[in-house]
Amino acid sequence: MIRAQGNVSYVRLPTRVQLLGTASLILFVGWTGYSSLKLIGRDAELDAKNARIEEMRRAYGGLTGEVSDLRSQLLDRAERLEERQRFLEQVLGTDPLVLQDPAATPIEAGLETEVAPADASAPAADASPAPSSPATGDDGAPSDTEPAVGDGAIVPRTKPQPPADGDTLSRLFGGAGAHAATGLSRDPSDRLQQEVSARLDRIERAQTFQANEIARNAQDRIDRIMGVIASTGTPIERLMELTTQQMAEAGRGLPSPGVGGPLIETDGPASALPKTLGGGSADSEAGRDRQALRAAFDAQQHLETVLDAVAAIPSAIPVKEGEYYISSGFGTRIDPFTKRRSTHYALDLAGWPGTDIFAPAPGKVVTAEKNWPYGWMVEIDHGNGFRTRYGHMRKLHVKAGQRVERLDRIGEMGSTGRSTSTHLHYEVWFDGEPRDPKPFIEAADDVFQIQKRENG
Fold first, then answer.
1. pTM for the whole thing?
2. How many Cβ atoms sit within 10 Å of the Cβ of residue 19?
């Protein structure tokens, strides 16, 4: 029906057209509804995906934080290991053990990756490290040879070898890290933490092995040196006291960090080990590591004191072999002038006039003068309580205050003072008391071998 200007007219559509129009309208309405529903559903799906993405973003952020914390913990622990390594190198005076694992991938590269997906084909940490030999040296380092004390020979001795695990700490971590000593939480699902922690554990075990070797090595050498010192008749405890005092006055010895605070009594002596070398109770792994390092530190410190003590012991005969004979011993004898029993605190070495006389050890000349009954005499202070005195000389070649080294010529044999004929009146004093020079002469070769090897 069409209405225009008051007139109504009718248009009649065929049935076919009406059906097509109705069908088209139904299709349009249906498509519009379907599209609307699809759009509404897509929006909901997008919202769900966005929510999932946001959740994953938060989880990613948390994982990144955990990886960052793990990295910090690993670097902290690596710094503690580096501090321990520096301590071991300081004790030995060299790099005691090169920890190499060429097949291993650098830990630092793994730590730089924020999220490292597990890879079943990735190589696992080597569980069977190859043995490696510690470095050797004459300055206190473990060595494949040790001096024998009987005849001065060098006797080879095989030592157990520690496991060599992981790269050197400087390669792995580049020296970076904090100074806090922290442990690692063990999460079997975290492959990165598990692998890196296992490698650090192996390095710690290798360092503990080194520390035990240092302590054992030092104690073996101390025992041998003490045996030689005892053969001279020198009171060992007093010698150690005097040596320790002299080292303290000279500021020598193993350096210790500054310490202080209130006194809290314990059962054992205070340790000079830095805190970063370990801590914990004796039953814990950290406590056992600390005990091993402390034992190495204490043994090396004791060894240094012993080496300093033996350096002052007269280790040479003041007259060349074959140019003298013993004309009078130490102790009670018949005085050549009074013909009565008297005490002789020296060893008389008879020889030709003008025979050279040498210093048996380094020291400082404290007396060089003519003094009855010694005649022309020299007295040398060797340190650590040792002094030697030489009498009846014909001529002096040193002056008071002069430093002399072992085997420096100090004078010539003569017969000045209270003397019957040409000879050297040789006295050895320790801690203000005269000692029999003969044991020092008999042990001179053994003492010199130790001085030569241990003190260069």
1. 0.58
2. 11
